[in-house]
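fwd from M.: "can u put these together and see what the complex looks like"

so here's what she sent:
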Amino acid sequence: MVTSNQRLEARIGYQFSRPELCERALTHRSFGPENNERLEFLGDAVLDLVITQMLYLRFEDADEGQLSLLRASLVKGPSLATVARQLQLGAFISLGSGERKTGGADRDSNLANVLEALIGAIYLDAGLDICRARIESWFAAKLTTLSPQAIEKDPKSRLQEYLQKTGRPLPEYRLLEKRGQAHARVFAITCSLPDTGRQTTAEDSSRKKAERAAALAMLEVLGEQL
Amino acid sequence: MVTSNQRLEARIGYQFSRPELCERALTHRSFGPENNERLEFLGDAVLDLVITQMLYLRFEDADEGQLSLLRASLVKGPSLATVARQLQLGAFISLGSGERKTGGADRDSNLANVLEALIGAIYLDAGLDICRARIESWFAAKLTTLSPQAIEKDPKSRLQEYLQKTGRPLPEYRLLEKRGQAHARVFAITCSLPDTGRQTTAEDSSRKKAERAAALAMLEVLGEQL
C-alpha cells in the first residue's frame, strides 16, 4: 500500500530520514501549536541563499540591484504558491477545520509557507547540497524565463556609473531623519554630489529604498543636463 | 615577510585558496567597477542562513516572530560594523581617494559591507560548513547575550495563543487594499474574528507588518474584556 507520505515524497523527489520533519512541515498553525512556522522561517533563509547563489553564478554581469529584483521575483509568495501547486502540495496540508472549510488548502499564503517549511525540513534532514538540488528542480521552469536585461539597473548603480564615466566623485548618501515607531519607520535620505553640492532628498520605509529614491531623483535632476 | 593578505587571514582565521576572492571582497565600490557589491549580496544571504539556523537550533521554544527579531539584532548594520572593527578590517579596505579622505575606512556601512563580502568570499572558496565556523567564532560574544525572553512575542502569535486558549477560531487576515507605487507601497489589512465578526484594520509598508499591526490592535480591543 502506498502511504500519503510516500505519495508526497514521490512528488517532491525526496525521501525523509526523519519523517517527523516532513509531518511538521505540512502542519498549518490552525492545526495546533506544533506547526510549521519555525520550519518556514528556516526554509525561507535556505531558499534565499540557494536562489541568491544560483543568480550570482549565472548572471555574472548583473549588479546587486538587478540580482535583488530577480530574486524577489522568484521568492515572492505567488511564485512559491505556483511551485507548490505544481507539486500538488495542497492535498497534504494538515489544517484546522475552519481553515479547511474556508479553502485553506488552496490559499496562496498557506501553499507558499508549506513549500518553505518543506525546504527547511529537507535542509535539516539532508543538508544544503541535497536541498539545493530539489529547489533547482522545482524552480527549473521559472529559471529559464529570467533575464537581468529585462530589469532596469538599480538607480544607485546607474547614478554611480554616470558619475564615474564623467570622472566625477561618487555621491554621498546621508540619513537626514529616522522617525516613526518600529512597525512604521520612515527614513529620510539625502543624496549629494561632493563636487557641485547638489542635493536630492527622499523618504521611504527602509534606508535602502529611500537611498534608491534619492538616487532616482538625482538622475532626474542630472537628466536635464545630459 | 608577512604580507597584508597574510595579516588579514590571521585575523579572520581563514586562508583563501583563491586570494582573488579575498581581494574582491575588500574592494569598495569607490575603488572601481570590480568591487565587492555582488559578493556582499551573496554574503548577506549566507550570513542570514547561518544565523537563522543557529537561532532555530538554540531557541527551541521561540516562535518565528521572536527568532526574526533576534536575527535582526545580530545582522543589522551597526552589529556587523562592530564585528568588523573587532577584526580590524578597516585597515584592509581598498577605497577610492575621496572615500578614504572622508573617513570611509571607519564608516559603519563600509565595514558591514566588507564583512558580508568576506563571508560571501569564504562561502564560495570553502563552502557552507567552514564559512559557518568562521561566522560562529566572530559572533560568539554577541550570541552569549541573546535572550528570546527579552523579546516580546509577535502580536499575531499572541493573538492566536489567546484565542486558542479560550477555544475560539483563529483570526483571519485579509488584504483590504494595496496602493502606491512599487517603491512606496502601502498595504491595508483587516484582522477579523470569525465567531464575533469583530474587526480591526491597519496599514503599513509590507503585508506582514500590516498584519502584525492589525493583530496588535485586536489584542488591544480584546484587552478591554480580558
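replying to her w this: The mean pLDDT of chain A is 90.
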